[in-house]
Amino acid sequence: MTGDTKILSAQQLNIKSIPKNEKKKIDAFVLREWRAHNKEKKYHYQEKEFRFAAYLNGKIAGCIYGNNNGGVAYLDDIIIDRKNRNKWIGKRLLKKFEEIAKKNQCHACLLATTDKHSQAINFYKNSGYCLEAQLKNMYWNVNEYYFIKRLKK
Question: Most buried of 15, 28, 32, 70, CB within 10 angstroms?
Answer without folding.
Answer: 70
